[in-house]
């Protein structure tokens, strides 16, 4: 009898603890719809998903647009100074690149490697937070925002749609073993790369953005996929890479592979789609430019050190900018792959990618440039313009919104820089 009472007390404490971590934790008596099927009561999923999300247009996407060019429409007025620093949100869990900040007129979202998602208003008040359970590695992909919903995947293999105003779950879909990539929202559908953990493999899925229902799943691609998909809307193709050195073009309409290209190393970064070609890097120390319709090689160049940087493509000035481990930032000519400039920086790990913007005079980039700095540099020539001190290594992508730069580091919180004139 005493043993039974002890077990009962332990169970109650655990339940209360879980509910404290996540106020939306599921009442186990409810039925749950996952993968389009109703599961029996008692399945320990974190919440009820019998809701729909509103189908509104995206207000923020990773790498700024569906082509993933990394070119922002925002403008910065220099010099910048740190405006705000918020807590410790990342803890250095898992070595993958961290989630980037998602920001729009409705607020600022920060997914973290500790499995928490934080939503702030523009006065930095916490409006809600949400905890995904059953994930030892947290969240590393960057969320899509709309005025009504937040979309992201976790390393527990589930994809989430949360209510933008409250953080309450709208739907969840168990798409695989793990999701480390960032989703893209286009034509009322979500596309995201998924990893299998039962075997070493992966695939791409298309989900209905309103309900989470699976529309299609590609065939297994032979290795895990950490690369986030980019879209060519004119060709109706999605592009992403995998750890088996293969780069894929997927037909948006049915999920069939149109072509694949074998690179020289694992492909970790997100590709960028330009009018010239689709550009990506690999761990062998190369950058590639492939013709989007056929997959034929237009050019390739050698870079020093392995790269999982996502190329920043600025077509106005014929530049593509990437970084590589060993402390290198490279500026290539987009048309033929010739190296125009190379900047050596004090950071052996260069997993983050640059965000480009245009001021009154020229195109600039905001990018990691040391273990504890983010730099603003000229995109055309690599000239250093300004340094911003941060509290740790930045492996995410700087986010620009309303004259501010939002940054998260690998083991700290949210840091915000703004113009001196606006403070």
Helix-and-strand structural type: mainly beta
* End-to-end gap: 65 Å
Beta-strand residue fraction: 35-45%
Catalogue the unreliable spans: 10-48
Protein architecture, described:
By secondary structure, the chain is mostly beta strands. It contains 1 helix and 35 strands. The strands form 9 sheets. The chain has a 5-stranded antiparallel sheet, with no helix packed on it. A hairpin with a 5-residue loop joins strand 19 and strand 20. The longest helix is centred in the first third of the chain and has 20 residues. The protein is globular, with a radius of gyration of 21 Å. About 9% of the residues have low confidence.
Describe the structure using short key phrases.
423 residues; mainly beta; five-stranded antiparallel sheet; four-stranded antiparallel sheet; 1 helix; 5% helix; globular
Q: How are the elements arranged and paired?
A:
Blueprint: H1 2-21, E1 32-34, E2 37-39, E3 58-60, E4 80-86, E5 102-104, E6 107-111, E7 116-120, E8 126-131, E9 144-146, E10 149-153, E11 158-163, E12 169-174, E13 184-186, E14 189-196, E15 201-208, E16 214-217, E17 230-232, E18 237-241, E19 246-251, E20 257-262, E21 272-273, E22 278-282, E23 286-290, E24 297-302, E25 312-314, E26 319-324, E27 328-333, E28 339-344, E29 355-358, E30 363-370, E31 373-378, E32 384-389, E33 399-401, E34 404-408, E35 414-419
Antiparallel strand pairs: 1-2, 3-9, 4-35, 5-6, 6-7, 7-8, 9-10, 10-11, 11-12, 13-14, 14-15, 15-16, 17-18, 18-19, 19-20, 21-22, 22-23, 23-24, 25-26, 26-27, 27-28, 29-30, 30-31, 31-32, 33-34, 34-35
């Amino acid at each position: 009898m005493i043993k039974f009472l002890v077990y009962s007390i332990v169970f109650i404490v655990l339940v209360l603890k879980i509910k404290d971590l996540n106020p939306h934790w599921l009442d186990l008596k409810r039925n749950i719809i996952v993968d389009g099927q109703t599961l029996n009561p008692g399945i320990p999923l974190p919440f009820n998903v019998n809701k729909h999300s509103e189908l509104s247009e995206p207000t923020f996407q990773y790498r700024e647009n569906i082509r993933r060019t990394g070119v922002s429409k925002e403008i910065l007025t220099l010099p910048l100074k740190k405006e705000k620093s918020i807590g410790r949100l990342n803890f250095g869990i898992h070595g993958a690149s961290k989630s980037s900040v998602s920001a729009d007129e409705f607020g600022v979202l920060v997914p973290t490697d500790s499995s928490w998602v934080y939503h702030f208003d523009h006065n930095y008040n916490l409006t809600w937070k949400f905890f995904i359970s059953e994930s030892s590695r947290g969240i590393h992909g960057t969320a899509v925002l709309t005025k009504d919903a937040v979309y992201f995947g976790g390393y527990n293999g589930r994809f989430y749609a949360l209510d933008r105003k409250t953080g309450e779950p709208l739907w969840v879909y168990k798409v695989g073993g793990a999701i480390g990539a960032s989703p893209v929202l286009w034509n009322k559908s979500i596309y995201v790369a998924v990893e299998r953990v039962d075997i070493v493999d992966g695939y791409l899925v298309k989900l209905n953005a309103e309900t989470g229902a699976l529309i299609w799943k590609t065939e297994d691609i032979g290795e895990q996929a950490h690369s986030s998909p980019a879209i060519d809307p004119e060709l109706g193709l999605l592009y992403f890479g995998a750890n088996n050195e293969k780069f894929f073009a997927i037909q948006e309409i049915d999920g069939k592979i149109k072509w694949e290209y074998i690179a020289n190393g694992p492909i970790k970064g997100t590709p960028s789609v330009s009018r010239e070609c689709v550009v990506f890097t690999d761990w062998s120390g190369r950058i590639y430019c492939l013709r989007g319709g056929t997959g034929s090689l237009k050019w390739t160049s050698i870079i020093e050190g392995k790269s999982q940087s996502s190329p920043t493509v600025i077509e106005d000035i014929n530049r593509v900018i990437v970084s590589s481990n060993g402390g290198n930032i490279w500026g290539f000519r987009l048309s033929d792959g010739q190296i125009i400039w190379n900047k050596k920086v004090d950071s052996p790990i260069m997993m983050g990618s640059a965000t480009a913007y245009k001021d009154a005079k020229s195109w600039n980039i905001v990018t990691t440039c040391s273990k504890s700095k983010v730099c603003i540099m000229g995109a055309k020539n690599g000239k250093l313009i300004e340094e911003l001190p941060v509290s740790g290594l930045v492996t995410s992508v700087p986010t620009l919104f309303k004259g501010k730069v939002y940054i998260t580091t690998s083991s700290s919180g949210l840091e915000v820089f703004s113009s001196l004139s606006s403070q």
